Amino acid sequence: xxxxxxxxxxxxxxxxxxxxxxxxxxNVFSRLTYAEATVxxxxxxxxxxxxxxxxxxxxxxxxxxxxxxxxxxGFSAMVDSVRATADTLDESVLREVIYAGWAWWRTxxxxxRFLTLHLNGAxxxxxxxxxxWQERHAQRAFDYLPEDERPPRSSRKAREQYAVRxxxxxxxxxxxxxxQTAWLDGSLxxxxxxxxxxxxxxxxxxxxxxxxxxxxA
Length: 217
Prior knowledge:
It contains nine helices and no strands. Helix 4 runs parallel beside helix 7 (124-139), helix 5 (91-107) packs across helix 9 (193-212) and helix 6 crosses helix 8 (156-185). It has a domain at 68-212. By secondary structure, it is mostly helical.
């Protein structure tokens, strides 16, 4: 039952527990697919009655979207913190950005499993959010190139290059998800973190830079 019961009232004096419920939803969706999870599962995870969940959210879809957005924002915030402290955005910073993404995955295993299980989103809104998130990070691929190597953004060639960058970022996101999940739960967990990070950066930096390089013609 994912819709708001008709009789559910929302007293103005009741305190908000939205953040706790979103956290509980993240925990549930990290273990169960969207189709498997229910509002009742989330309520049980949070230690409240289902009516308390419906007081704050319209149903499972809204809860999923909130939890999904929170995970994407958490990953982006870790990356943004690296970019914000850099004097110049170059290859070394790109490596640090990759390390930061890896660090977020390691230090937020619940959110990491949530995103891995629902990587492209599971609802119309979450799929739109994921597309926008990918495009935002793909657009930043040019930032790590010298200013005089960045192509103009108004030409057809620039649009074609942007499509290549987006494809490159999607590959990067998929590779990170697979490798980081293997580190959390699989054979990579037996390897030193620093070695895995360095190896991934060696693979991903050329891909991102190559995808962002302007056509010499």
